[in-house]
Amino acid sequence: MISGNITGQPAKAWQSKKCAVVLTYDDGLNVHLDNAIPLLDSLRLKGTFYIPGNSQPFANRIDEWRVAAKNGHELGNHTLFHPCNGNMPGREWVSKDHDLSNYSLNQIVDEIRVCNTLLKAVDGKDKRTFAYTCGDREVEGQLFYDLLKDEFIGARGVYSEMNDPENTDLNNINSFMINGESGEELINLVKKAQNSGSLLVFLFHGVGGEHDLNVSLPAHRKLLLYLSENRNNIWTGTMAEAAVQVADFQNK
Question: Is the domain covering 19-251 a CATH 1.10.3720.10 domain?
Answer without folding.
Answer: no
